[in-house]
Amino acid sequence: MQPRVGISSCLLGRRVRYDGGHRKAAALLRWRVRWVPVCPELEVGMGVPREPVRLVGARMVSRSGVDWTARMRAFARRRIAQLRRLNLAGFVLKAGSPSCGIERVKRYGPRGRPSLRGQGLFAAALLEAFPRLPIADEARLADPTARAEFLRRVKAYARRS
Ligand code: SF4
């Protein structure tokens, strides 16, 4: 049976981004896996199109100041509980997103200065819940060697579980 791998929905080509676009990652979609799409911002109720959100300190805030932090954290808990039942063998997340980004996400400090020290809220919850699961972003997997190695880890994980 093909391994199940979670993925940020926009990487599958679904038009779920804040502006109604997608970020289809064609090279990944050749893998023989069963994709499990998740779009935290759509699924938490932000809609499409929507106001972009960003990280301000530990909070997730929209451009007009709506604070989504508590709702996104609660959503992540619920969605991760569902994902646990699917025996995922890996997860590919969208780089740079305040929801899905694994590392180096833009985060604004108290004086409005950005740094690249943030982590997406959904990604942070996922990494905490599945510390051994192969998880990477599509930027890292743009490299063919990294891609092949990640897929090898996914298959090894699937065999173990
Ligand atoms: S990066 Fe994550 S939250 Fe943003 S559109 Fe893609 S799946 Fe949705």
Succession of helices and strands: EEHEEHEEEHEH
Physical arrangement of strands within the biggest beta sheet: 2-1-5-8
Characterize the overall form.
globular
The biggest beta sheet is recorded as:
4 strands, parallel
> What is the number of beta strands?
8
Question: Ends: how far apart?
Answer: 12 Å
Number of helices: 4
Give the percentage of residues in beta strands. Answer: 15-25%
**Which consecutive residue ranges, at least 5 long each, have pLDDT under 50?**
none
Bound molecules: iron/sulfur cluster
Rg, please? 15 Å
Overall pLDDT, averaged?
97
Give the fraction of residues assigned to helices. 25-40%
What structural category do the secondary elements indicate? alpha/beta
Task: Describe the 3D structure.
- The chain is α/β, with parallel strands linked by helices and 161 residues long.
- It contains four helices and eight strands.
- The strands form two sheets. A four-stranded parallel sheet has the order 2-1-5-8. Strands 4-3-6-7 form a four-stranded mixed sheet, with no helix packed on it.
- Helix 2 packs parallel to helix 3.
- The radius of gyration is 15 Å and the shape is globular.
- The mean pLDDT is 97.
- The site of iron/sulfur cluster has 13 residues, from helix 1.
- Iron/sulfur cluster binds next to helix 1.
Features:
161 residues, alpha/beta, four-stranded parallel β-sheet, four-stranded mixed β-sheet, binds iron/sulfur cluster
